[in-house]
Structure formats: structure tokens, C-alpha cells
């Protein structure tokens, strides 16, 4: 088990290194000059050149990359070209809304999708199973921003149940904090409910055809015990895997959802930084998202040890 965990930990280092190189190169090879954006339309070529020199953009790419790596090794992601503050401080200011939205989204998705998937597998071919498959297709097909505007029109404008936009921090009270998060989290959770429910259904359905399920039923166990303790427990690895993979979709969905609901999180920060060609901010946010994604997948891999005793040995 220790060897397995060690291998998984070491495997994360090359992934983070590749992401760092790709992010650095892609930003500098794409069209657009951050110095020209900062200088404005009325700036002269001399002023733009001076801003480029002040930002260190006149240095060769290898020199820029070396400086950036040295700063990262010291825990310094640089200073934002546009916001004029440290990128690490900027991420810290926007971290709470994004983590809150992501955590509530995953919580809603798992609590809803896993029971739905188990019931659909149990009633395979019935009306409930067909309804869930139809919902899964709809969840994958409808873009997040379209669903967001539909829910805003119905639940906020017409019924007045939730605020249209905005965010309240946890320091302002748990009630307002949760009240402003529910609608964005429900919007973002639809695609995860569709994904996780579909995988849960397929995994549990496969487990229900195994010999140990017939043995459990022959022992006279309740059907709920058979479904939860035997079928769902043995189907846990694919379900946990797809939850971890869903973090990648969550990162992309957060950008759109935060923009629609005017949530001041890392998604909105990413959009603003891209429009301003703010290299340090874009690099810092993407690296943070990549690190979170790698760590979540690492935790998923390590969780296999507890779900499958064969890996433990």
C-alpha cells in the first residue's frame, strides 16, 4: 500500500510541471500585447515599449520562464499587470466564492445522483429508469448558461424565490450566504447529476448481475441491504472516479456560472484577466486550478485503497 501511495504522489509532479510549461508558452505565443492594453489607445509606441520593459516582457522567453519558476519556488506568483496587487493575494480574495460554489455543487450532485442511479438500476427498464436516462441526455445537452438564464427567469424573476445575482460572504451570516449560493449551485449541479447518475446506474446494474448478489438475496437480506451494502459498495470505484473527473468540468462551469450570476470568484477573475491579457493572473489561476485538479485525482486514486482491499495488498 505504501508503494502504491508513493507512486501516485510522484506521478503528480510531472503533471504539474507540464501544465506550468504549457500555460507559460501558450499565453506568450497567442496574439495580443498586455502593454498595449495597459497603455490605452492613445499611447505612443515609445510608451508601450517602456511599459513592456517595466513588465519584463522584452526579456527572452527562457529568461522570463526562469524568473517565473524562481518566483514560484519561493511562493510568489508575481504581481497582476491589471489589478496591481500580488496574484496570490488576488486568488485569496476570490477563493471563498469559488470553493463555496464548487463544494455545494458537488454535495447536491452526489446526494441526488447516487440514489437516483441506484434506483434506476434496481428498476432497470421501468418508467423511472427511462425518465432518468432522458434527464441525463437533457443535462448533457443544455449549456450551463442557457439553464442559468431559464432558472433565473423562472425562480428569480417570476416566482421571486432567489436573488437574480450577487454573492454574500460567510462572514455576513450563514443564511444569506446559503441563500445566494443555492440557485448557482443547482444550475451547475445539473450536468453532474446527469453524469454521476448515469455512471452509478451502469455500475450498480453490473454489480446486481454478480453471484454474490444472488447469494445475499438467498440469505434473506432486505433489498435495501443488498443494494447499499453489496451492489453500491462494490460499484463504488467507478462512481468515485467519475466524481473526481467531474472536477475538470466543474472548473469550466464555474467560469460561466460566476459570470452569469455575478459571483466575484476565480471564474470571473479568469475572464477579467484574459480580457486584459494579464499574464501573471492567468498563470496563477490556471496553475491553482490545475493543482486542485491533480490533488483531487490523487485523493481519488488513494481512496481506491479503502474501497478495494486487493489494491491494499
Short structural description:
This protein is mainly α. The protein has 14 helices and no strands.
- Mean pLDDT equals 79
The main pleated sheet reads as: none
Give the H and E element order.
HHHHHHHHHHHHHH
What's the number of helices? 14
How are the SSEs ordered, and which strands pair?
Elements: H1 2-29, H2 34-39, H3 45-55, H4 61-73, H5 87-122, H6 127-141, H7 144-158, H8 174-208, H9 211-218, H10 223-234, H11 236-260, H12 266-275, H13 279-307, H14 309-312
Helix pairs in contact: 1-13, 5-6, 5-8, 5-11, 5-13, 6-8, 7-8, 7-11, 8-10, 8-11, 9-10, 11-12, 11-13, 12-13
Describe this structure in words.
The protein is an all-alpha fold and 313 residues long. Helix content is 79%, strand content 0%. The protein is built from 14 helices and no strands. The radius of gyration is 24 Å and the shape is globular. The termini are close together.
Which terms would index this structure?
single chain; 313 residues; mainly alpha; globular
Amino acid at each position: 500500500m505504501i508503494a502504491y501511495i508513493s507512486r501516485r504522489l510522484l506521478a503528480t509532479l510531472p503533471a504539474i510541471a507540464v501544465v506550468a510549461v504549457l500555460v507559460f508558452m501558450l499565453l506568450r505565443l497567442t496574439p495580443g500585447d498586455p502593454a498595449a492594453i495597459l497603455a490605452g489607445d492613445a499611447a505612443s509606441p515609445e510608451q508601450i515599449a517602456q511599459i513592456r520593459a517595466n513588465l519584463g516582457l522584452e526579456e527572452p522567453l527562457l529568461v522570463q520562464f526562469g524568473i517565473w519558476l524562481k518566483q514560484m519556488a519561493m511562493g510568489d506568483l508575481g504581481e497582476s499587470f491589471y489589478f496591481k496587487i500580488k496574484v496570490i493575494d488576488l486568488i485569496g480574495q476570490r477563493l471563498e466564492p469559488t470553493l463555496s460554489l464548487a463544494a455545494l455543487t458537488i454535495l447536491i450532485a452526489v446526494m441526488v445522483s447516487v440514489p437516483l442511479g441506484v434506483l434506476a438500476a434496481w428498476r432497470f427498464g421501468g418508467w423511472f429508469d427511462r425518465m432518468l436516462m432522458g434527464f441525463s441526455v437533457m443535462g448533457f445537452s443544455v449549456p450551463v448558461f442557457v439553464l442559468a438564464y431559464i432558472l433565473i427567469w423562472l425562480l428569480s424573476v417570476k416566482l421571486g424565490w432567489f436573488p437574480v445575482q450577487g454573492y454574500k460572504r460567510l462572514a455576513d451570516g450563514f443564511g444569506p450566504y446559503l441563500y445566494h449560493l443555492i440557485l448557482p449551485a443547482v444550475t451547475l449541479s445539473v450536468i453532474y447529476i446527469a453524469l454521476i447518475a448515469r455512471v452509478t446506474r451502469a455500475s450498480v446494474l453490473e454489480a446486481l448481475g454478480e453471484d454474490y448478489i444472488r447469494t445475499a438475496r438467498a440469505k434473506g437480506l432486505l433489498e435495501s441491504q443488498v443494494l447499499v451494502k453489496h451492489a453500491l459498495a462494490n460499484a463504488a470505484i467507478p462512481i468515485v472516479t467519475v466524481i473526481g473527473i467531474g472536477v475538470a468540468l466543474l472548473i469550466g462551469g464555474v467560469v460561466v456560472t460566476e459570470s452569469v450570476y455575478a459571483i466575484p470568484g476565480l471564474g470571473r477573475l479568469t475572464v477579467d484577466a484574459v480580457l486584459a491579457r494579464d499574464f501573471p493572473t492567468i498563470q496563477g489561476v490556471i496553475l491553482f486550478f490545475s493543482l486542485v485538479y491533480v490533488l483531487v485525482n490523487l485523493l481519488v486514486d488513494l481512496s481506491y485503497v479503502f474501497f478495494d482491499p486487493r489494491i491494499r495488498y
